[in-house]
Amino acid sequence: MIKSLFTIGTAAALCLSISACGTTEVTPNPDYETYISQGEVFKHLSLKDIHDQTVNLRDQPSRKLVILFATWCSDSQRLFQQLNASKLVEDKTLTILAIGREENTASLTQFAQEYSVTFPLISDEKRTIYSQYANKGVPRLILLDENNRVINTLIGETDNIIEQVKWN
Question: Domains in the chain and their CATH numbers?
Answer without folding.
Answer: 2-164 (3.40.30.10)
